[in-house]
Write a structure and sequence with these properties.
Layout (H helix, E strand, L loop, with lengths): L5 H27 L4 H11 L9 H8 L3 H13 L3 E5 L7 E5 L1 H46 L13
Antiparallel strand pairs: 1-2
Length: about 160
């Protein structure tokens, strides 16, 4: 098992700092729009639902990594605020899909634009810090290749 170097720890700390900086920006922007972090994330998940998936509560809860009842609470608050609506499908009246209202679309568009602009500015710092994290991985692969050892596979356990 590889031991991390001081440079590895510094790279991980810097990367997490850059991520936290972006999330701090996001929290301020979302709060200024009168929403909670989870509400923005849910609206973004509805709008950005992967192709082939339908915006049902279960899928949205999975996207947000929250329990079903937590997603329902977010949806209830967004619906009460006029940001989302529930729609029953024609094929199966039991199936409920979620959609953004015009108000929700407008607020999301503005917030997403601010987030996109911030990411454009933060990207060089984020990429540089991620490269420093990955540099340790590349050094490890190079050492294993030159010594004839098998390079490790990528697993979730190697996440920063």
């Amino acid at each position: 098992m590889k031991k991390l170097t001081l440079a590895d720890y510094r790279a991980l700390a810097e990367f997490r700092y850059q991520i936290r900086e972006f999330f701090a920006f996001s929290d301020r922007a979302v709060q200024a729009a009168g929403l909670e972090r989870g509400q923005y994330q849910l609206m973004l998940a509805i709008k950005g639902m992967p192709e082939g998936q339908r915006p049902r509560i279960r899928e949205l809860a999975n996207q947000l990594h929250v329990q079903h009842h937590s997603a329902v609470e977010l949806i209830n608050r967004l619906e009460a605020g006029g940001y989302v609506r529930r729609e029953r499908t024609e094929e199966d009246r039991r199936e409920v899909l979620l959609a953004l209202t015009p108000k929700g679309e407008n607020v999301l568009a503005e917030l997403a634009l601010h987030h996109h602009e911030e990411l454009q500015e933060a990207a060089p710092r984020l990429v540089a810090s991620l490269r420093r994290v990955m540099a340790g991985k590349e050094d490890q692969r190079a050492r294993r290749t030159t010594t004839g050892a098998k390079a490790p596979s990528s697993h979730a356990s190697s996440r920063p």
